[in-house]
Amino acid sequence: MAALIDAIDVKRKMFVELENIPYSCLDVEISTPTARGGQTLVRLKMRNLLNNSVFDKTFKASDKFKEPDMETVDASYLYSDSDGSYFLDQENFETLVLGEDKVGDALEMMVEGIILQINKFNGNPISLQLPMQVELAVTYTEPGVRGDTASGGVTKAATLETGAVVRVPIFIKEGEKIKITTETREFAGRA
């Protein structure tokens, strides 16, 4: 039987199962009453890992959650088509498929061969986690204009090999590889 977790013990980025649905904890707020006999309450902000919806709910500190049958595996991105995106499990070389609804705009940060993590619930792939940073080539950007200063924080739009458009410093040229922070989609430096 899966282990039970008290609501008071739930931490950020932890996985819990509620009503047979896996959730990722985004934020925890514990309110301890000052009055005698008052109950400690735990407010959890959680993301449903099956449909990506987010909700806040308050639980008693003693409420219990099941530990979900979650597994995170390293996988490399292969390709995408109308049926979804295909990944190769790096341990058993099984092909994993995630639908467009599960991948979303993460495709803008993925090139063939990138290693990322796939979350599996009860053995089925349900979501992916991109690495903190990715290296992508700039396919188009306006040339920097003489007199613009790099130290002044001047930026310009750059189109990347995946089709994503990000703001980069004025000195970045077409063909250069740059690092992008996947969470914020911001320039992090030259590769």
From TrEMBL:
For this UniProt entry, what is the primary localization, expressed as one broad class? cytoplasm
Where in or outside the cell is it found?
Cytoplasm
Pfam families annotated for this entry?
EFP, EFP_N, Elong-fact-P_C
Query: What Gene Ontology terms for biological process does this UniProt record contain?
Result: peptide biosynthetic process
Q: Which Gene3D superfamilies match?
A: 2.30.30.30, Nucleic acid-binding proteins (2.40.50.140)
GO molecular function per UniProt: translation elongation factor activity
Task: Provide a GO CC annotation, any one.
Answer: cytosol
Keywords assigned by UniProt, alphabetized? Cytoplasm, Elongation factor, Protein biosynthesis
Q: In which pathway does it act?
A: Protein biosynthesis; polypeptide chain elongation
Question: What InterPro entries is this protein classified in?
Answer: Elong-fact-P_C, NA-bd_OB-fold, Rib_uL2_dom2, Transl_elong_fac_P/YeiP, Transl_elong_KOW-like, Transl_elong_P/YeiP_cen, Transl_elong_P/YeiP_CS, Transl_elongation_fac_P
Q: Which residues form the Elongation factor P C-terminal domain?
A: 134-190
Quick check: keyword Protease in the entry?
no
**Keyword Transcription applies:** no
Could you tell me which residue ranges the Translation elongation factor P/YeiP central domain spans? 72-126
* Family in the record: Belongs to the elongation factor P family.
Question: What role does this protein play?
Answer: Involved in peptide bond synthesis. Stimulates efficient translation and peptide-bond synthesis on native or reconstituted 70S ribosomes in vitro. Probably functions indirectly by altering the affinity of the ribosome for aminoacyl-tRNA, thus increasing their reactivity as acceptors for peptidyl transferase.
The protein here is known as: Elongation factor P
Q: Which organism is it from?
A: Terriglobus saanensis (strain ATCC BAA-1853 / DSM 23119 / SP1PR4)
